[in-house]
Amino acid sequence: MPAACESVLEDIEDIVSAEDLKPHDRQFVRRNVFPKVRKRNSQKNAQTDDEPPSDSIIPGVQKIWIRTWGCSHNNSDGEYMAGQLAAYGYKITDNSDEADLWLLNSCTVKNPAEDHFRNSIKKAQEGKKKVVLAGCVPQAQPRQEYLKGLSIIGVQQIDRVVEVVEETIKGHSVRLLGQKKDNGKRLGGARLDLPKIRKNPLIEIISINTGCLNACTYCKTKHARGDLASYSIEELVDRAKQSFQEGVCEIWLTSEDTGAYGRDIGTDLPTLLWKLVEVIPEGAMLRLGMTNPPYILEHLEEMAKILNHPRVYAFLHIPVQSASDSVLMDMKREYCVADFKQVVDFLKEKVPGITIATDIICGFPGETDEDFQETMKLVELYRFPSLFINQFYPRPGTPAAKMPQVPAAVKKQRTKDLSQLFHSYNPYDHKVGERQRVLVTEESFDSKYYVAHNPFYEQVLVPKDPLLMGKMVEVNIYEAGKHFMKGQPVSDARVHTASVSRPLAKGEVSGLTEEFRCSAQNGTKWKAQPNAEIPVKTRLSSWMALQLPWQQEGGGLKILSVSLALLAVLVMFYYGGMKTEL
Description:
Elements: E1 5-9, H1 12-15, H2 23-26, E2 33-37, H3 42-48, E3 63-68, H4 72-88, E4 91-93, E5 101-106, H5 111-126, E6 130-135, H6 136-140, E7 151-153, H7 161-169, E8 175-176, E9 181-182, E10 185-186, E11 203-207, E12 209-210, H8 221-225, E13 229-230, H9 233-245, E14 250-254, H10 269-277, E15 285-288, H11 293-296, H12 300-307, E16 315-317, H13 325-331, H14 337-350, E17 355-362, H15 369-382, E18 386-391, H16 408-422, E19 435-443, E20 450-453, E21 459-462, E22 471-480, E23 485-489, E24 496-497, H17 514-521, E25 529-530, H18 542-545, E26 546-547, H19 555-581
Parallel strand pairs: 3-4, 3-5, 5-6, 6-7, 7-8, 11-14, 14-15, 16-17, 17-18, 21-23
Antiparallel strand pairs: 1-2, 9-10, 12-13, 19-20, 19-22, 20-21, 22-23, 22-24, 25-26
Cofactor: [4Fe-4S] cluster
Pfam family, one: Radical_SAM
Enzyme class: transferase
């Protein structure tokens, strides 16, 4: 036997399924099990002699630091993982130095984000921290050299983060990268009613679908999130109701493309939104996330009606990326500039005051000076109040990375020129003196103000009065900047409290069952219960035998089946080897 053995599993559930080979055939086809041997030298032995053996480590008592990069979908995943770990007993800390394990939740959209992720891994290893990786980077390219030997939790496997963390703390490497499926059909992801720690207790981020229907040539996220898979309307409405019961007063709907929602399950975005509007209490608001032009075109009339609803922000994020049809064709964006203009013009007419945010990529391969000037003209025409300017970065494995590249100096100059144009106008100057209704939900980065948003999701800074947090108030706008306005609460105006429950405390776990709450009140720490059929002392590992409350619906039986199947395989290997020797 080797001195130390490390097994890396892509996904334990992929080992035994209805479509797989039977156990007696499995010894010849072990696609998802990759045994690795880690040899110890004398120096390493000296370092590990003082460490306790892995089976003596008690999981659920360590401190965990979580870092998330990227979009609101990724942030929601990070909140869910934090909630499950805290519910199990782990302490979520803001201090990376005191943490025993770092959970790094990555973004693969741009090179700088992945560079930060890679540097964080290196820093964790230098600090002798245990590391678990999550997000789109390891999901899209799990075999990159700098990810070798590290545990990975896939974007659709976040409900199993406790298992991965537990095994990693014991010194093992586990990789769960499989897809959630029901009768062979891909699901939107993990359940939406999992425990969660909201970064802001007043804001709930709900992922309505994962993946998309496009194949943009520059996009790496597609490699991680895959094709479109939507949650059912019932699941999403239930999640919204639960959020309001926990004191949330603002909901963000997010995905890689909200406009494509429901096409895989026979419904559409307007149908979902009308159902959600029915359960939004007075004083609470809904914000819709990014949608690409092709899919919103079909629903313009209904979308205008929804965006005019008093409990829905008149705000829409529609990325154009370029105002050149030839560049859009090379990007495979599946629309032309005229389509984008049709959407914007229609919504501006039907939803007075609407905020349209957009994205632009500078220096995409093949972009000429004439192409770029078309983009400059588009920005000059619409003067977008919110504009996300991105210098093109070729992402490994994408078609755009193989195209002839625009020189770096040209990309940099175009990015600078567009930024200067954007900063040449002030979108809010004409609003000084207005009286606006705003919902207060956050604290500013400099901690000098509270942050509120008016019905058009424009940022309004208000005085730091604790009585205003989570409330809808009327303010007089007395100052305007490039990205914000400042408002003073009107003295004679009524402060409106959303008709929701008291908000959870910052860091408090949402979605806990009554069992959890009773345990907390009695001062006892919740522990996962071992499966009755498998004694604790003889279980293969705790994450095969333990059932967390949100995994109990059939999960225990499936885990037991997998465990028994693995035992059968091991026994067959053992006796097969003995027979060969005899």
